[in-house]
């Protein structure tokens, strides 16, 4: 699922009107209005939406807690239906024992009657008494059989009631957990939209915010669907200018996010992304803003490749994760743009089997072809992987809250949402000093 689709859905939950939803997330919305673009919401409106989303999330968390307590009560040995089921089972077992005893009495009475029948010396009175005893035993056995059948049916019914109650409690808990995830998604998106609006208002008080640029693309190559703890994975990203305009400074945003199998624990600290280029072959860690300032300028039709490496610590538990990669450009005249669709690669994480092998330190491969003069890039579509120039200079601080790194840990989808929200908030402020 695309991050923009998740965010568009989440904002729709958090903000009550389609107009707000479409205007706060233009980079992630799947569709545009057929007629006219709705007015952009104010910071005050977004603050209200964020507050409502937070309230809804708090209520969802409380409801999930109540549902969990209901499950605990339903599965308890002291639950009324469980107690009733145990009593019915005990009664059924006792009825079955009584039936077995009655059946045995019939067998004994039958044997006594048969013995007297064959005994020529037996009196008629003894034979008659034996017949009566057998009849009484059969009657008692029939009554015991009926009671046992009824008790067994009642036991099954009582057990079913108890089991159904437990199943309903679990079902209600599952719905509550889903509701919490949805509320978290809505809250995350609403917070991201508000943060983005505040940053744009601060950085561009007169307007002129960065626009979506479909012609600026990021394509990831060679990323696997599964990684294992204690290993290193190398892949690459191709950034291309498919427009007819110059992009004077192109930046690449790259981040990695992960949770354990439950989706409740953030394990991203065990995963590290590094980058290198032919011009700068030493592996380098991402800067604090998660941007790679290694491309420089891209003319119309040009593209450039960056090598990336994902180091997975040997202590990493099994789980799932994703990488989130996008591109921005900034020009001296103040114009800027960003990829509307980031490259999102979901992957499974496998725990190390036994003692992990020593982690290798791969060397980035180098191109045997001579780098192109100038920017070190080639026209898009040439089919060759080219080196890129690493430019000097630093990025301005984004001003984003540290809390954004802890968002959306409830599930794989929520992890993606958290990545998208952080990406949305942080990249808008990057390049302010470009």
Shape summary: elongated
Mean pLDDT, to the nearest integer, reads 76
Amino-to-carboxy terminus distance: 32 Å
Give the low-pLDDT segments: 1-37, 364-419, 421-434
Question: How would the blueprint of this fold be written?
Answer:
Blueprint: H1 3-14, H2 18-24, H3 43-75, H4 80-118, H5 124-203, E1 211-212, E2 216-221, E3 226-228, E4 232-241, E5 247-260, E6 271-276, E7 284-285, E8 291-298, E9 302-312, E10 319-330, E11 336-338, E12 343-350, E13 378-379, H6 412-429
Parallel strand pairs: 1-11, 3-12
Antiparallel strand pairs: 2-4, 4-9, 5-8, 5-10, 6-7, 6-9, 9-13, 10-11, 10-12
Helix pairs in contact: 1-2, 1-5, 1-6, 3-5, 4-5, 5-6
Description:
The structure is a single chain. This protein is an alpha+beta fold and 434 residues long. It has two domains: 1-209; 210-434, Sandwich (Immunoglobulin-like), CATH 2.60.40. It contains six helices and 13 strands. Strands 1, 3, 5, 8, 10, 11 and 12 form a seven-stranded mixed β-sheet that branches. Helix 5 (124-203) runs parallel beside helix 6 (412-429). The longest helix has 80 residues, at 124-203.
């Amino acid at each position: 699922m695309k991050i923009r689709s998740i965010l568009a859905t989440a904002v729709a939950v958090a903000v009550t009107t389609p107009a707000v939803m479409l205007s706060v997330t233009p980079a992630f919305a799947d569709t545009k209005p057929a007629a006219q673009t709705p007015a952009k919401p104010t910071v005050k409106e977004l603050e209200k939406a964020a507050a409502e989303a937070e309230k809804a999330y708090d209520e969802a968390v409380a409801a999930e807690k109540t549902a969990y307590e209901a499950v605990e009560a339903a599965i308890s040995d002291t639950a009324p239906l469980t107690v009733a089921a145990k009593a019915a089972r005990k009664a059924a077992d006792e009825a079955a024992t009584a039936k077995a005893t009655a059946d045995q009495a019939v067998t004994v009475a039958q044997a006594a009657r048969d013995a007297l029948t064959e005994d020529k010396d037996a009196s008629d009175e003894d034979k008659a008494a034996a017949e009566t005893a057998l009849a009484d035993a059969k009657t008692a056995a029939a009554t015991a059989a009926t009671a046992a059948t009824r008790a067994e049916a009642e036991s099954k019914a009582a057990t079913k009631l108890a089991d159904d109650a437990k199943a309903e409690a679990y079902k209600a808990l599952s719905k509550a957990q889903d509701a919490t995830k949805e509320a978290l998604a809505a809250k995350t998106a609403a917070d991201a939209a508000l943060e983005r609006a505040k940053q744009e208002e601060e950085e561009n008080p007169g307007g002129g915010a960065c626009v979506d640029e479909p012609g600026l693309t990021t394509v990831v190559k060679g990323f696997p669907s599964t990684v294992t703890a204690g290993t290193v994975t190398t892949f690459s990203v191709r950034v291309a200018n498919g427009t007819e305009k110059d992009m004077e400074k192109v930046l690449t945003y790259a981040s990695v996010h992960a949770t354990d199998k439950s989706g409740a624990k953030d394990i991203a600290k065990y995963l590290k992304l590094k980058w290198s280029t032919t011009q700068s072959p030493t592996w380098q860690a991402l800067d604090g803003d998660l941007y790679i300032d290694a491309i420089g300028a891209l003319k119309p039709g040009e593209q450039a490749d960056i090598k990336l490496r994902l180091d997975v610590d040997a202590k990493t538990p099994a789980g799932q994760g994703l990488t989130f990669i996008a591109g921005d450009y900034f020009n001296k005249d103040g114009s800027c743009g960003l990829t509307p669709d980031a490259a999102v690669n979901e992957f499974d994480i496998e725990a190390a089997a036994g003692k992990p092998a020593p982690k290798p330190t791969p060397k980035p491969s180098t191109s045997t072809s001579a780098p192109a003069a100038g920017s070190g890039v080639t026209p898009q579509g040439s089919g060759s992987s080219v080196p890129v120039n690493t430019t000097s200079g630093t990025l301005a601080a984004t001003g984003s809250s540290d809390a954004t790194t802890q968002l959306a840990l409830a599930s794989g989808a929520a992890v993606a949402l958290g990545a998208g929200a952080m990406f949305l908030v942080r990249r808008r402020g990057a390049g302010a000093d470009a």
